[in-house]
Amino acid sequence: MKKLLTLAALALLPACGSEDEAAPPPAPPALGAQIDRMGRAGVNTAVTNPFNHDPTTHGAVQDRFNAAPQSQFASFAPSMAANLAILDSLDTVCGNQLLAGPTATPGRYDALAGVLADDQLWVNTGSGTCELYLGVEANALGIDNNDCGGRTPLEDTIDETYSLFAAGALSGVDDGVPIDADGRASLTEFPFLAPPNP
């Protein structure tokens, strides 16, 4: 009988955290100015202002690109097109860059510049296969695939981006960095952090 009374008394006590559950959630923090955006790897570095080495203006253009709202993305396309023309010549074959075409005509690099200025990473959430960086964009251009696109931590997206700019392929241009110094990333562990350096 004593045990039953004790259990009954305990049942009348409020559960732990019941007061916290009744309190409304805190308001979300106020967002400040956007300072970075990162969709496709290497776009800002390679195409917005790559040939200006003046330390006072080089970073300023990249910062403007990072801070721009989507309504201003297209304003970067003309300068990107001019820089893409230079990058297309790196393999000594002009016109083999993605979307450039073999004929030297005005506006030849505008299509790719427009895609790159809209620096968003597209993902096909209906696919469970994620092995092709830019897979969704490739599909839109008629290169059939059922990949999710996006990018995994295992992708060498810089090599692939530079290869597209210079040779119109997903490989062929190497940045000289085969693996990060701290080891290979993982698809099964999160966060993707290697052990600290000794």
Notes on the protein architecture:
- The protein has a domain at about 45-120 and about 155-165.
- The protein has eight helices and no strands.
- The protein has helices at about 1-10, 20, 45-50, 60-65, 75-90, 110-115, 135-140, 155-165.
- The longest helix is centred in the middle third of the chain and has 12 residues, at about 75-90.
- About 20% of the residues are buried.
Features of the shown structure:
198 residues, 0% strand, mainly alpha
Oligomer: single chain
Count of DSSP helices? 8
C-alpha termini separation: 63 Å
**Runs with pLDDT <50, length 5+?**
1-13
Order of helices and strands: HHHHHHHH
Write a brief caption for the model.
This protein is mainly alpha-helical and 198 residues long. The protein has helices at residues 2-12, 18-22, 43-48, 58-67, 77-88, 110-117, 135-140, 157-167.
Task: Describe the secondary structure blueprint for this structure.
Elements: H1 2-12, H2 18-22, H3 43-48, H4 58-67, H5 77-88, H6 110-117, H7 135-140, H8 157-167
